[in-house]
């Protein structure tokens, strides 16, 4: 009897050990399979981004104003709120085709295959397609170009689709209003009434959202400076002068001082005054000073040419002629110094050698020295 129990117990122990070994081998096989799967996945080439990937990667900042848009509301172009999200982009109305209906981007691509291929990689088209779950399939094209049913019926008739060129029948106001329906507020809150808007400029004069010509800003040229110099060629020529702002060297750009979309100032400065703009970089000239120089406190442009000059330090005139615009026949010198008084002139005067007035009045922007009333120190 004892022999039978011992034999039974031995059989149970052998069976249990077999199960343990079998489970261990299965676990090891599963682990090797997981490792191989991970390695295979790691070595697989990454596929192109899908619409869901783009939708997940869209920035959240400045894209949260779509609550009202989902209920049919439209932001006013003077509103200073955040921009419209891509999934709530409205279909703009075309005043030249008031009865047109949206037909969807596939209908557009059936004729405009080349444009569809060229713009497929652009941020606007990819983002509109990613947000089409809320705005419908028409968002990719008709969110900017308006409803296209009338254009599809009469493709050769001008004005039935919103076009963004000056030779198109679409009014400039309609073109800019279409862009501002999403890009409202922020840096563009003063576009209405700005000098660029009054001159009849359209957004596409500076931007091209259908292709990638610039690193940022969907510009119509390689850089901001090249876009601005397309019209402001006289200003661009001033940067070729002997003394100039470091714009050609790439250290600054036009938008460091100006906001092309409009400001409260006539020259589109990003600050309220010229002095505030200059003092953004030249903080040592800001003051306050115990002894202030009146023309310096009034406007830096009284003495300096902001873009470039043939005189040192961007001066508008050579010294002492610049100083004598205000200081003439008072105190010393009591005689008017002219270009003939320079070292190269007919009657050289020792008082205007080298730096002229600045030989003695060195702290011309202002002085905090107790003896600095004449800006000597």
TrEMBL record:
Signal peptide span: 1-29
InterPro entries: Cytochrom_c_NrfB-like_dom, Decahaem_cyt-c_DmsE, Multihaem_cyt_sf, Multiheme_Cytochr_ET, Paired_CXXCH_1
Keywords: Signal
Region of interest called Disordered, as start-end residue ranges on this chain: 33-52
Cytochrome c-type protein NrfB-like domain: residues covered: 141-208
Biased composition (Polar residues): 33-49
Pfam families, per the entry: Cytochrom_c_NrfB-like, Paired_CXXCH_1
PANTHER family assigned to the protein according to its UniProt record, in alphabetical order: DISSIMILATORY SULFITE REDUCTASE SIRA
Protein name: DmsE family decaheme c-type cytochrome
